[in-house]
Amino acid sequence: MLHFVSFGSGSSGNCSLLYTDEEALLIDAGVGVRTLKKHLKNYGLTLRDSLGILITHDHADHVRSVGCLSHDYNLPVFTTHGAHEGITKNWSVRKKIEPDHVKIIEKGTSFHLGPFTITPFGVPHDSTDNVGYRIVYGDVNFVLMTDIGHLTDEMKGYIAEANYLVIEADYEPQMLAAGPYPQHLKERIAGPYGHQSNQECAEALAAYATPRLKHVWLCHLSDENNHPDLAEKTVKQLLRDHGIVAGNEKGADFALDVLKRKTPSEVFDLL
Asked: Which pLDDT tens digit goes with each residue over 118-177?
């Protein structure tokens, strides 16, 4: 069986683990090393069975610990060339990735790690480069996309294919507009290479999700411009307006959970 757990999702750090009883994939490494090791111990997990680290992009909240984790567990790191170049120049990554651990991937080109077939795809964002991942394991089609400036046709297709989907719901527009951020930062967040709002997330699900979708996790919620209850309520209500019931109640079209910003989630079984 395949399992999914998030160790943090938001501007303070992003990191999650997709694993079976024998193999694992770490997705992003933006949580502190000691914090992550503590969480792993608490869950009875280890990265010694990991096949590698998949990196979405080179912003600090996704790569802060990548060099240390790669070194400590002897793990290859899979990034696009652009993202790797960004990591080498990122001052927050104090220990860089050792050359032998660097594995360059290309958007649209699938590769295999153990039982997993992994396809990176482009996600518009103002990082050096940014990708989402479709990860196929048996009949499971797991898709993760975060830091979404806008949806491309390719991304819409991956939403339609997903059984399990991690998707960004970063901000509430009214909170962003009324918040303390300077105007240029507000424009960057809401712009075509910034982040995806609660409403945009809901509209994407309503328009492109199919009956094969079983579970959605809202990720990368802003500390200042969103709230977990608000994100969940907004997305559920907008989906209901389209005749779609999301949640954990009986009869829902698919389950929906909000990933915690600074603490681990529960372990989810992907059937």
From this structure: 999 999 999 999 999 999 999 999 999 999 999 999 999 999 999 999 999 999 999 999
Residue 121 pairs in a beta bridge with: 132
CA–CA distances in Å: residue 150 to residues 92, 174, 219: 27, 19, 15
Edge-to-edge, what's the strand order for the sheet holding 131-137? 111-113, 116-122, 131-137, 140-145, 164-168, 215-219, 255-258
Tokens of 195: 């982040």
SS3 state of residue 92: coil
CB atoms within 10 A of CB 180: 8
Cβ–Cβ under 8 Å, residues 223 and 261? yes
Element at 131 (helix H, strand E):
strand 131-137
**Contact assessment for residue 162 and residue 205, using Cβ atoms and an 8 Å cutoff:** no
- At the second CATH level, the architecture of 2-266 is 4-Layer Sandwich (3.60)
- Is 27:17 a contact under the CB 8 Å cutoff? yes
Tokens 């898709």 sit on residue: 143
**Cβ-contact 75, 69 below 8 angstroms:** yes
Decide: pTM greater than 0.90. Answer: yes
Find out whether 190 and 173 touch, Cβ atoms under 8 Å.
yes
- Looking at residue 23, its amino acid is E
- The answer to whether 253 and 223 have CB atoms below 8 angstroms apart is no
59 with 83: CB under 8 angstroms? no
pLDDT the model gives residue 143: 99
Q: Please name the amino acid found at residue 217.
A: W
The backbone torsions φ and ψ at residue 192, rounded to the nearest 5 degrees and listed phi first, read: -70, -5
Burial group, residue 7, by CB count within 10 angstroms (0-12, 13-18, 19+): buried
Any residues with CB less than 8 A from the CB of 100 and at least 6 apart, and which? none
